[in-house]
Amino acid sequence: MDIKQMSYFVEVVNEGGMTNASKSLYIAQPTISKAVKDIEKELGMPLFDRSKRELKLTDAGQVFYQKCKEILALYNNLPVEINSLLGLETGHISIGLSAVMNMNKFIQILGEFHKLYPNITYNLVENGGKMIESQLANDEIDIGITTLPVDGTIFNSIPLYQEDLKLVLNKEHHLAHRKTVEMKELANEDFILFNEDFYLNDKIREAAKNAGFIPKTISKISQWNFIENLLNAHLGVSILPDNIVRMLDSNFKHININDSAMKWELGVIWKKEKYLSHATRQWIDFMSQRL
C-alpha cells in the first residue's frame, strides 16, 4: 500500500462514504473503491462492515484509520521538518484556546513569537475545554490551552499558571460590600455560567453541590464578555478566573470565595503519540516561558 491509498481510505471515513470522498477528492469512485479493496487484500482482513447500511469500520478498520492519520501527518510535515533542519523556520500551528483565558496576554506573546518566526502561520480556535479535547483527539488541532488536569492516558500536558476563581457581581448587589463569602451563602443567588462544554461550569456546580445546593442558572453562555453585559443588567452573579476579573470595568465587584476548590490551572495539552512539528514545539517552549 502507499500514501495515496491511505489518504483515499481516510477521506472515505471522514466523508462518510465513497461517493462523498469521490466528490471531495475529485477522483472517480471506482478508483477509490479499488484502493480500499487493494488495502484490504494486502492486510488480509476487511476494513468496513459491509453488512450495515451506513458506513461502519471494523475493529481492524478503526485501528488502521488511526494509524493512517498518524502516518499522513508525519508525511505532510516532512517538508517542514527538513526546512527547519536547514534553518528555515516555517510551519503552521493550529491552536485550540480556552474561551476563559486572558486573550490579550496570549496575543501579546503570539506577537513576540511572530517577530522571531515571521514565516509561521496560525489557526486559532476558541472553545470550551471539552471541545478542545475532542478536537485534539480527532486531530483537528495540534495543541490546546485548557484546564488541567486532563486524562493522562490520552494527553500530554505542561502547566502554565494557576489562579483563583472569584465571585463577580454588580457593584449595587447586596454582597458587593463583602471581601469574602462562603460558597453556601450563594445558594439563593441567580448564576450566569458557561455552557456544559466548559470545565469551569463543572467546577462551580461541584463546589455548590458540596456546599449543599444546586446553583440556579438563569443563563449559559460561551463568551465571558457576554457575562459582563448580563451582570451590568443585574441578571445575577458569576464566578470567573482572576485574569478575566481584572479585565472587567469598574461597574463590577469581585469577591474572594472561601473554598479551596475555587482555583484552577491552565496548561498546554496535546494528544499522546501525536507528531508535533518543529514550529509547534518551538511555540510550546516559548509560551511556557512567558505565561
Automatic annotation (TrEMBL):
Source organism, top-level taxon: Bacteria
Alphabetized CDD domains for the sequence: PBP2_CidR
Gene this chain is encoded by: cynR_2
Gene Ontology MF terms in the entry: DNA binding; DNA-binding transcription factor activity
Domain HTH lysR-type, first and last residues per copy: 1-58
Identification of the protein by name: Transcription regulator
Family: Belongs to the LysR transcriptional regulatory family.
GO CC annotations, alphabetized: cytosol
Keyword RNA-binding belongs to the record: no
Cross-referenced InterPro entries: HTH-type_LysR_regulators, LysR_HTH_N, LysR_subst-bd, WH-like_DNA-bd_sf, WH_DNA-bd_sf
Transcription as UniProt keyword: yes
PANTHER family in the cross-refs: HTH-TYPE TRANSCRIPTIONAL REGULATOR YBHD, NITROGEN ASSIMILATION TRANSCRIPTIONAL ACTIVATOR-RELATED
Keywords linked to the UniProt accession: DNA-binding, Transcription, Transcription regulation
Pfam families from the UniProt entry: HTH_1, LysR_substrate
